[in-house]
C-alpha cells in the first residue's frame, strides 16, 4: 500500500487523518515540528514520524522522500505560498500520485483576507506544478467551539462575528475521513475542487442556542471585537489572525460561508457529525469539574 505524508499531524485534521489512513491500510508518515509526547502517540498508533518545518525546503524534501501521496495543510499565518511552492516542487520531484490541499471555502483571487487569498494562490501553485491535486475548500470547523470552551463553562458564548451570519460547521474528523477516502482513489479525485460543510447551517446566534440546549443551560450569544476575542482565547497580538478574522466577518456578511453541500457524505458514504454529537463527545471541555451552587 502507498505511503501518505500527513503534515500538521498533531492538528485538528491531521490527528484523525493518521487514524483514518491507517484504517484504510496506508503506511503513514506524520510530519510534526518537535519530538514530544504527541509525536510518541503518533508512533504508538503505528505512524512513522518525521520532523521538520514546511518552510524548510530540505526538511520538506526529506519528509516527502519515498512518499506517493500527501496531505498539505498550513495554519493561519505568514509563509503559506512559500510553503506551497516548496511542497509542490518536492512533490514533483517525487512524482506523487496526489496531493490533497487544505483551503478555504471562500478561496478567491480578490479575497480581503491575505490568508484566504494565499490559499487561492496555493491552489494555483499546485495546479501549475503538474502534481495531481485535490483542493478541499472548508468552512468553519466545529473545533471553534473548543477554542471558547473555557468561556462556555462559565455561561459565555463569545465570537467576533455577527449574530446572524450563517455557516455550516464541520468536524475536523469528517474532513480527515473525506481526505482518507480521496487518497484511496487518487485517479478519481485528482483535479477536484470540493467544498466541504457540515450537515446543518446555523447563524452564530442559533449555534449558541444549540450548544446551550445540548448542555442544558442558557448560553446567549455575545459579540466582541476581534482584538478582545484573541485576548479571551489566549492569543493576543496575533496580527495574522486579527486581520484574517476581521476579513472573515465581512465574508460572512456577504454570505460566502453560507450553505450546505453533500460532498463529504457522498465521498465517505457516512453521515456527518452533528453539533450535538460533537458537544457530547467533548462534554468535559464545556462543563466545570465541580457543581456550582448559589447562596
TrEMBL record:
Start and end residues of each NmrA-like domain: 3-256
Gene3D superfamilies associated with the record: NAD(P)-binding Rossmann-like Domain, UDP-galactose 4-epimerase, domain 1
Any matching Pfam family: NmrA
SUPFAM superfamilies: NAD(P)-binding Rossmann-fold domains
Listed InterPro entries: Ergot_Alk_Oxidoreductase, NAD(P)-bd_dom_sf, NmrA-like
Highest taxon above the source species: Bacteria
UniProt protein name: NAD(P)H-binding protein
Classification lineage: Bacteria, Bacillati, Actinomycetota, Actinomycetes, Kitasatosporales
Amino acid at each position: 500500500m502507498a505511503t501518505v505524508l500527513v503534515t500538521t499531524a498533531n492538528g485538528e485534521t491531521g490527528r484523525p487523518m493518521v487514524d483514518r489512513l491507517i484504517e484504510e491500510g496506508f503506511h503513514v508518515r506524520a510530519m510534526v515540528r518537535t519530538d514530544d509526547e504527541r509525536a510518541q502517540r503518533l508512533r504508538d498508533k503505528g505512524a512513522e514520524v518525521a520532523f521538520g518545518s514546511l518552510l524548510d525546503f530540505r526538511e520538506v524534501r526529506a519528509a516527502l522522500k519515498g512518499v506517493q501521496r500527501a496531505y498539505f495543510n498550513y495554519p493561519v499565518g505568514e509563509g503559506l505560498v512559500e510553503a506551497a511552492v516548496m511542497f509542490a516542487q518536492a512533490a514533483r520531484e517525487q512524482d506523487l500520485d496526489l496531493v490533497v490541499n487544505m483551503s478555504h471555502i471562500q478561496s478567491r483571487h480578490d479575497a480581503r483576507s491575505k490568508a484566504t487569498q494565499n490559499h487561492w494562490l496555493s491552489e494555483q501553485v499546485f495546479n501549475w506544478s503538474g502534481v495531481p491535486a485535490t483542493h478541499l475548500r472548508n468552512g468553519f470547523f466545529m473545533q471553534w467551539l473548543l477554542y471558547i470552551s473555557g468561556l462556555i463553562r462559565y455561561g459565555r458564548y463569545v465570537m467576533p462575528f455577527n449574530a446572524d451570519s450563517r455557516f455550516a460547521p464541520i468536524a475536523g474528523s469528517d474532513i480527515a475521513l473525506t481526505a482518507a477516502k480521496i487518497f484511496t482513489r487518487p485517479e478519481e479525485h485528482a483535479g477536484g475542487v470540493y467544498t466541504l460543510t457540515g450537515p446543518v447551517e446555523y447563524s452564530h446566534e442559533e449555534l449558541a442556542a444549540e450548544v446551550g440546549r445540548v448542555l442544558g443551560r442558557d448560553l446567549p450569544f455575545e459579540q466582541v471585537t476581534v482584538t478582545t476575542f484573541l485576548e479571551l482565547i489566549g492569543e493576543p497580538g496575533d496580527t495574522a489572525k486579527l486581520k484574517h478574522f476581521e476579513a472573515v466577518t465581512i465574508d460572512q456578511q456577504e454570505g460566502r460561508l453560507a450553505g450546505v453541500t453533500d460532498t463529504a457524505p457522498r465521498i465517505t458514504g457516512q453521515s456527518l457529525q452533528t453539533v450535538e454529537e460533537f458537544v457530547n463527545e467533548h462534554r468535559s471541555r464545556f462543563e466545570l469539574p465541580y457543581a456550582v451552587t448559589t447562596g
